[in-house]
Queue: 2 jobs
Job 1
Amino acid sequence: MIVLLKPNPDKAQLDSLIKWLESKGVEIHPTVGTTQTILGLVGDTSHLDIDLISALDIVAGVRRVQEPYKNANRKFHPDDTVIKVGNTVIGGGNLTLIAGPCSVESEEQICAIAQKVKESGATLLRGGAFKPRTSPYSFQGLRDEGLKLLSVAKKLTGLPIVTEIMDIAHLDSFDDVDVIQVGARNMQNFELLKALGNTRKPILLKRGLSSTYEELLMSAEYIMAGGNNNVILCERGIRSFETYTRNTLDISAIPVLKQLSHLPVIIDPSHASGKSALVAPLACAAVAAGADGLIIEVHNDPEHALCDGPQSIRPEAFDALVKKLGRISSAVKG
Amino acid sequence: MIVLLKPNPDKAQLDSLIKWLESKGVEIHPTVGTTQTILGLVGDTSHLDIDLISALDIVAGVRRVQEPYKNANRKFHPDDTVIKVGNTVIGGGNLTLIAGPCSVESEEQICAIAQKVKESGATLLRGGAFKPRTSPYSFQGLRDEGLKLLSVAKKLTGLPIVTEIMDIAHLDSFDDVDVIQVGARNMQNFELLKALGNTRKPILLKRGLSSTYEELLMSAEYIMAGGNNNVILCERGIRSFETYTRNTLDISAIPVLKQLSHLPVIIDPSHASGKSALVAPLACAAVAAGADGLIIEVHNDPEHALCDGPQSIRPEAFDALVKKLGRISSAVKG
Amino acid sequence: MIVLLKPNPDKAQLDSLIKWLESKGVEIHPTVGTTQTILGLVGDTSHLDIDLISALDIVAGVRRVQEPYKNANRKFHPDDTVIKVGNTVIGGGNLTLIAGPCSVESEEQICAIAQKVKESGATLLRGGAFKPRTSPYSFQGLRDEGLKLLSVAKKLTGLPIVTEIMDIAHLDSFDDVDVIQVGARNMQNFELLKALGNTRKPILLKRGLSSTYEELLMSAEYIMAGGNNNVILCERGIRSFETYTRNTLDISAIPVLKQLSHLPVIIDPSHASGKSALVAPLACAAVAAGADGLIIEVHNDPEHALCDGPQSIRPEAFDALVKKLGRISSAVKG
Amino acid sequence: MIVLLKPNPDKAQLDSLIKWLESKGVEIHPTVGTTQTILGLVGDTSHLDIDLISALDIVAGVRRVQEPYKNANRKFHPDDTVIKVGNTVIGGGNLTLIAGPCSVESEEQICAIAQKVKESGATLLRGGAFKPRTSPYSFQGLRDEGLKLLSVAKKLTGLPIVTEIMDIAHLDSFDDVDVIQVGARNMQNFELLKALGNTRKPILLKRGLSSTYEELLMSAEYIMAGGNNNVILCERGIRSFETYTRNTLDISAIPVLKQLSHLPVIIDPSHASGKSALVAPLACAAVAAGADGLIIEVHNDPEHALCDGPQSIRPEAFDALVKKLGRISSAVKG
């Protein structure tokens, strides 16, 4: 960390700052220029509060040199994290396909889709029980009943379940859930992250709509600080000025997050675009860029399509897409 | 609401859509053009799920004409909402000043600041007990102990308390809190909003960092749908490409939100800028643009400034600012 | 186009509006609801000025149904535009590789790189002669001398040249340039677009840093309105809140622009990321998503790397990348 | 400037970097830590190309300490720049009001508005002759004829003229123009900026829609590097995710730009909001925040309002606003 001092800093305040920093276990290397004095801080600075230092009267600015996350940082954990879920693994060169409907609606629906996507090659089943909706008047999901139906589909197909949690109070009902999803709007719900850090369940952590890579990794760090290292990062589109797509898939997140962190990176092309016609090209791009997996919305009943999101694709389209993704994955590996 | 159909829509699907819409209680007025057919929906469309309709095969697009919020909408409630808190009111032409430290740190600190800001003209005391921090390694607030210290300061000065809640589970400890703040990162924590809708406490709802006015009003609607109409909207800066300021104060939020809604609008110039030198000019601008109040960070102890955010101002600066704001408020009213 | 009227519009103003719209050759279909009257406009509305109509006292809002661009619109030109440049074509299923240095620096440099990238499979040579730089104190390019050196490299290798124009006044010097590039910062330099519309040269039009798809297509429309249909669209990254990468590649631009328009779509992974390590994964993603080509910065002289941008890759890396892209392209086509 | 080196940098490359930097006239202060070596650069670094240094193999990152602009920097020119235009001055505590129609349409129109706004207190006349329009099919302004009509209005009222230039080639026609405006979309049209730097005309430089303060000041620096110090900065709204307003006025730009630079700062509330109802509150906010002036669209003919933008206000509204702004300006000064 580098602390830039204002010109002619008060001597007493500077001594007090240096003493305080040293008490935190960092070494200080000052550079005195004609117009600017710089303190180079060497050692573990991840526990220093950058805002507090910036607030000091004598400080002009603070620049980080090291990343503020440790457990999630590839520098300290060079090997890929591989997460075992049921009979499958996420990360480590595996291409994981998670598929299922936007919302769980009925036993028939979730079981039928589960069987279909399993046949096509999906290894995990997704489905929303608790639904975060912008409007209080929109369908909020089947909630506990939805979790039960997911368990039925899991028993039938053997597919582990991925579903979203919206509040700590619901955690007790998530016993049979294999991967707990944290939605984009809860990426900085720090109390929820802490609670999930106290479990040992794999957590699929979605990036917030306008969050940076560092903020995503700091949220992962919240979970890992509790001892739960089973974190899967998920890029699901950021908010941009473009309104044609619901969000804008940040494809660079794949190589960058994999470089900064050892955690697996999953892409959600369905929510990223909000349009079924874009799911296949975005999924192909994600695999070509090195994603560890995809989470895709698949619906089953075009006649009652009122109940599916505009970003869901049909089982036949999913089946064709899986074949294409396999070819691209091989092409990338050479 | 206007539904744009794709060219040559399937007759059976169109009939089914029209029947479904009519079953929701809306009247349909079709406009048949040579290249485009449009359905004009007349009646209360706030309960229709725009995403579901957009997903239909025969639909090219949906455009809202009416706002999707009702309780928060000025069209249906033309008069300003005025919220009584202790001996003061928020809204209705009153200029409310909320002031206090970033975090509650000790009884001496919070009581000293409370007395200072009261003398200058603040009518509510703010102070963080539960602190949402990007890093799990940063100070997370005194939590329950912080709430107790706020109560001590309230008893001493008579100032009602404003403080942030981070999880439903903490609600029981907020009995003596007068106004519960929902932070920007929790603006779409829908389960929390629902729980607060079941209380009758005034809620200070902060706008999310990249949220639109409509999304803010829909989050207010979540609270109001539970029967709690005591919602105060708070603009605290949006994320922009500018990195010189921590966030970018959206000053237009004041006249726009007051036009769209009857709820009071409060401005937070401290978090909007992240720099103490900008607090005064932004506060002046907010009052000139018609804000119902301000929430400002004030610290008291420059010698130990390590504990205050870079956006806090000193009591003397707050005192001078209050006088200036009074003059501007009079100038605006003419 | 749909015009939403305010409640109880003035009769005389409404009649005057309808008469004016009819004089522009559009048919009017009014829908009268209890709270809202809507005018459905049928016919060619691309020449109507949406701002002027919105400004009317009786108008609450205007919503477009049809795209405001015509020549660039796939609806009216279903077949892919294929642009012939020298011995190669851009568009129509071809994967075009444009490569070369950030800036032209010397005859040795540009000729050496041109030969290298040609051997690897590039079919066009890029190189900056006029350089748009944020600072007036940065190197501004060799300008006219740079154009001459590009011509030398073209003569030597037979590769057609792509280079950027920064002002109409320079157009005379661009005779030997095969594809004229318009930079992101000039995407809405309308006078320049008009001047280029009067030539018949292929134009590589880069998307502005915060422009929408529609704005990009409207800028293409400016060129095409002058009779020059040889426009190549180029996505080169948008500005986002992420600062780790210089810009954020909007990979969705590929399928969306190809759906909305018949013009070829080229991706610039070098400027999109600003980091050489990201060029390969982004290039792979672009080909997987269906791009018509890539424009990539390649430098040749690691010992004097001070003169190359941080996003340039070396000839050997380019060579390996081209092979990978070929495999992915085949995998996508199946 | 601070250069962060990668761990274990190549000795020869490091020596070559240090030698190169010293040849540019800067002193090097290295800080060698256990995991990181830092070079502190002391001296005038504004001429160093940050991109080139970042591109070096041994460099992990570069952080600026000093601003890259010099002529526009308040540090080197502590006193406010005051620009004389006709009989009035811009900057230095004066509140300048620039008013006039969106587009010049006829002699009657421009002269009538000029007289009206002069009576209300405007000291400069604005009016568009060359109009940057997103669509090639929209009205592009009266161009040279518009400039002539502005001159007629100037002769009649004595008000100096402010109007926009769109291309260097038009510069000859701008002889009688007193302040040349550079539009937001041309803020980084560097060739145009250079040409204007060679004149001695006052330049009203509008901030780009997604530009940072530093980028705006670097564009001012382009003009000033040519010897023309008569630059007026203009904030006119940035692009944000909010679609209710056309743009989002960044009110913080006023205190920040005035702190970073000595140049006058003018606010355009008309384009910032795109809505006439927001012009007054935003103008009031701008004056309260310390703006040096305002540029406001005023139209005169409500019956033919089709020709005015939705953000124009009527002369009576402008007259009332001017009175209010005077009161606020006095209140701010105390």
Job 2
Amino acid sequence: MTRITFDEMKATIKKAFVLAGMPEDKADICARIHTESSCDGVYSHGLNRVERYVEYIHKGWIDVNAVPILDMNLGAMEIYNGNMGPGILNAQFAMNRATEIAEKNGLGLVSLNNTTHWMRGGAYGWQAADKGFIGICWTNTESCMPAWGAKSGGIGNNPFIMAVPRKEGHIVLDMAMSQYSYGKLQVTRLKNQKLPYPGGFDNNGVLTDDPGAIEESRRILPMGFWKGSGFAVLLDIISSLLSGGLTTAGIDKFDKGSCGSCCQVFIAINPLKINTQEFIDKALGATVTQLKSSVPDRENGEVYYPGEQSMKTRNENVKLGIPVDDGVWNKVKELAGINS
Amino acid sequence: MTRITFDEMKATIKKAFVLAGMPEDKADICARIHTESSCDGVYSHGLNRVERYVEYIHKGWIDVNAVPILDMNLGAMEIYNGNMGPGILNAQFAMNRATEIAEKNGLGLVSLNNTTHWMRGGAYGWQAADKGFIGICWTNTESCMPAWGAKSGGIGNNPFIMAVPRKEGHIVLDMAMSQYSYGKLQVTRLKNQKLPYPGGFDNNGVLTDDPGAIEESRRILPMGFWKGSGFAVLLDIISSLLSGGLTTAGIDKFDKGSCGSCCQVFIAINPLKINTQEFIDKALGATVTQLKSSVPDRENGEVYYPGEQSMKTRNENVKLGIPVDDGVWNKVKELAGINS
């Protein structure tokens, strides 16, 4: 396994984006977010996603020069048209704006319509938490999962993020609505392994941990069966009604790539408007202590708080370099005009 | 199976609450919410919960005369002390207040600290939707589920609700963080049945659909495995930081019954501040159509939108009467001073 330093990966991705036509300052930010995703262990939306991102730019599915424009200002809530600009930049802008509103009043909500794939949703949770804010955000997507009770796709995989700032390490949940991603199924199948827990139905409608059988049936499992299915529907329609943008059904028709013209919601809350830092430290400390003091389900096991493993992976990858697939790395170097 | 009319059930529960010391107007509202829960098929938090509720009043764990008092006003966000008053009344008040704030600005958030069990969380989603608002709410609870990776309890089952108003029937998600409730395990075991899907781990740490084995190990499964576990943690700490109240760890120490001195968050959004009714109808219509047109996974199967089955059950129970367990019904009549 090859490991690449953070700086080399970022510089290479940036070159690829500049060559694809993105202004240098924007390419710099996008390259950082892709690199941070890989660095945190979310490989699917980091380096591995660069080639497809460049394709989308070439197809005209992302307007590298577009910026979000205010549609409506309702005080604590603002609505922006993302104008099909880079999803990362639009989402960063929106979460930042939500924190600016919350700075004043404690609470800010910013929604985006007509935006594009934000890559790793967790990035905007970490962003809010780094600034000292509670962050909640979600996006809708094209349909890619059967609803509960169906065997054909009909609902989005709509990631949902909640983040709470904490000195010793933010507490961050970043979850999509499927139990596993198709990326995870592929990786597991290529290793000739089974999934740790059932991840979908096979062509006979039987719940299975065989990744290949699920790739074939396209029946990935909503997390929590009917619960994740219902949650996906509500996240979808609320993001549309909060932004005036397309639902999953509309994104399907629009048909400009994954998350083309999707909607996103960003909520920021300033916990220091409500509590003292001492109260916050105590509340979060007691929660982490309670988690850490529960009995692990296996020998030498450990119970992690949400976000803890991302931080561990980040620290390791910053020190040792970020692991890459050689084929993917060479492809991105090629897109960056670098001879391997 | 005995069926009781809505009105008879409500009147009987009301008498039981009045006899327990609750003022008549408050007893009327609480009885209605309990009856509506049973009527919608949420039997565990309807009639079946009345006996325990009365016990809590007698133990002094609920102050039947307390009302929520404003702790802090931050514009779009208000924070109230629930003063250990009846959880149903506090929650109704809070969601109603959130809609009042949202009426003006589009968005309102009200949080409660020091409140008590709200019974069926979905009630407050339906309440917001009935008034034409999008409603989002959640509560924290005492710990009752092992976190992912643990075999002893440490996290709350923190229900989470999202509701969207729709003429033909609101779209409402009402989910706790465990895949199944202990109530569901008990009912399934008593019928000598297996759970439809795995619902926890047995004493050997093996995932199982045997309800009795899970009741024994106390290792109910968070929905979506690690996902529901992480979601529960974030709902808990955010409800505490938004209200200045106790986390799950604090509720455990406080030790005054299920959800004693818990925290709740209520968000209301006025979709008509952002969209025309025509846009809303189209967006929701397209989503329901897409769901309904997916291929069912079994012959004569049907794909439901979230909340649809509650509405069907409600309509049936209003027509035929609400099914009750005779033992439970007689007990509530006894508490109401009615000779069976």
